[in-house]
Amino acid sequence: MKLLVVEDEALLRHHLYTRLGESGHVVEAVANAEEALYQAEQYHFDLAVVDLGLPGISGLELITRLRNQAKTFPILILTARGNWQDKVEGLAAGADDYLVKPFQFEELEARLNALLRRSSGFTQSTIAAGPLVLDLNRKQATLDEQPLGLTAYEYRILEYLMRHHQQVVAKDRLMEQLYPGDEERDPNVIEVLIGRLRRKLEGECGFKPIDTVRGLGYLFTERCR
Amino acid sequence: MIRSLRVRLMLAAAVLAVLFMLALLPALQKAFSLALQESIEQRLASDVTTLISAARIENGQLQMPALLPDERFNLPYTGLLGYIFDRAGQLVWQSRATAAQNINYQPRYDGRGNEFARIHQANGEEFFVYDVEIKLLGGKSAAFSIVALQPVRDYQRTLDGLREKLYLGFGAALLALLALLWAGLTWGLRSLRRLSRELDDLESGARDGLSTHHPRELLRLTGSLNRLLQSEREQRQRYRDSLDDLAHSLKTPLAVLQGVGESLQQHNGEREQARVLQSQIERMSQQIDYQLQRASLRKSGLVRHSVVLRPLLDSLCSTLAKVYRDKHVDVTLQVPDQARVPMEQGALLELLGNLLENAYRLSLGQIRVSLFREAGRLTLCIEDDGPGVPANQRQRILERGERLDSQHPGQGIGLAVVKDIIDSYDAELSLDDSALGGAAFRITFNLE
Q1: Locate the Response regulatory domain: which residues (chain A) (predicted)?
Q2: Looking at chain A from residue 188 to 207, which residues have their Cβ under 8 Å from any Cβ of chain B?
Q3: Is-cis flag, bond preceding B65, omega within 30?
Q4: Which of A26, B165, B273, B429 is 20 to 30 Å from A110 by CA-CA measure?
Q5: How confident is the model over B166-183, as a mean pLDDT?
């Protein structure tokens, strides 16, 4: 998933960038609201983590602006004060959950996963489509209850497609799931990854859930639950 | 002890007015009676003159006409009596009107000329007497006392009438005076009443300061109060801002440290050290939260706040419903729309936020918030259908606030903050079983 982290404290920002990256997310970590607005304009994010105590434009104002720009991805706020005034204002402005500093990374991750699950309409921590089951917590896929040996990139692509099942997903969008915005991109990588995924899914049972929509992108045709 | 300024002023003014009138009444009566006596004297003198001009001396004898020009001498019961005595005091003539009277009066011919006096009769009746001694009459020598009398009765009746009128007049004047005074006081004290209304508004939070449209005498007072309020507000705001800054500047580094601890554990396998680090970080963080919230949420002294409960509950419930949306909690609010709670908004929000989050976290699907008032007490009750709190642990949970300073890392500070806020507002927190099946937290405010 592609996450936006907005935190002015450099060390904490770096920590979040590293740990969330390790958890299999593509993270854009920025230090202020202006940069965050720019990033949100440029890329499609699946979730944002916003510190309320930002310098300049406040976290609250940032959330309001994002929502005014019709950005619907879930937002989790980080608050140092931990008082209810902040939480109520933050959620009223459009955030979806809050976490009080300092926090354990596991808790942040659990909250983020819950928000991501909810935003794609899933309430369980697994997504199933026919014989294919994705365990979102363990980042593992099984086909006919047999573990599917996917690389991290393949898993990301598959999870994204399944979350957006029965929707055409552009190649660029998938690219954003793999690389942070400013990295060099090779459009062939997606084709290669999709090809490998198809082969692994087809395996022995002949499961073919990924269609190519020419000129537009890819479509996960199975209904996911 | 009379507590109303207006009643005090009215009483003082009424006592003063009554005393003043009581002093004035006899003086007025005296002046009037003197004036009346003087006019009676003048009238009797003119009556005597009538007698003198009617009298003649013939052959050394006094001759009076049968009818006198002044009718009152001729008719009985007119009250005007005329007598003429000789030098020896022998009655030589009396007017017709004296027929029905028997006056015991003895003039003294002693050369003193005119005399005005008041005489008493044996039957208790009194008369004014005007007695004139004459030596010559019509150019002939004659020594007579010519006397005109008038009963005091008429004079007394006039005087009584006057007294009655005076009393009535003074009574009416007193009433009118008091009514005017009441109106004047109402006008004068109106500014005090307005000030009191403004203070009510101020205490209820409906206004920030007192207006400047008060009389000069009050402006100094309202000015000082406004400055005091302003400085309290600013100080409070500054205080809160610095506490916020402090929270931010302490807790963000703690979050970094927390991350470092986690990295240690993850990469170097320093599990034990990382655990110690994390428990200490958590403890510091709780202390910071607790002390900062405690410092900023205690009751402020000057303004008596009260907040409409409903909107606060609505916004908290919509916040929590969003956070716990997977849980589908059904919240019942039994709170009148305009019902107020005697607390400051920030403190009430923290209090309710902590208790409601507790309820959301522990409930199976039902929460009830109710507010009711009975016998001068206002009770706010938050119930859930969760597991509840065993009776033997309730006391410990309610006392956690006091003990948090020294121990219990790892426990949420929510209830400690709640307890602290409630204590600072002199309210009571109790914990028992709810009809829903879980815990019921009750906060009771004494309104008297």
Answers
A1: 2-116
A2: none
A3: no
A4: B273
A5: 91
Compare CB distances from B353 to A53, A78, A84 and report the shortest one's residue.
A84
Write the pLDDT tens digit of every residue in B41-55. 999 999 999 988 888
**Third-level CATH fold of A124-218:** Arc Repressor Mutant, subunit A (1.10.10)
Contact B247, A81 (CB under 8 A): yes
Q: Do B440 and B434 meet the contact criterion of CB atoms below 8 Å apart?
A: yes
Inter-chain residue contact B319 with A92, CB threshold 8 Å: yes
pTM summary value? 0.66
The CATH-assigned architecture of domain A1-118 is: 3-Layer(aba) Sandwich (3.40)
Partner-chain contact B319 A88, CB within 8 Å: yes
- Dist CA B336 CA B283 (whole Å): 40
List, as ranges, residues 47-76 from A with C-beta within 8 Å of B: 53
The CATH number of the domain covering residues in B305-444 = 3.30.565.10
∠ CA A58-A120-A78 to the nearest 5 degrees? Answer: 25
Q: Which of B257, B315, B322 sits opposite A96 (nearest CB)?
A: B322
Under a CB-based contact definition with an 8 Å cutoff, are residues A195 and A178 in contact? no
> Which chain A residue shows the shortest CA-CA distance from B291?
A81
Q: Does A83 touch chain B (CB under 8 A)?
A: yes
| Domain boundaries, given as residue ranges, for chain A | 1-118, 124-218
Write down the ipTM of this complex: 0.77
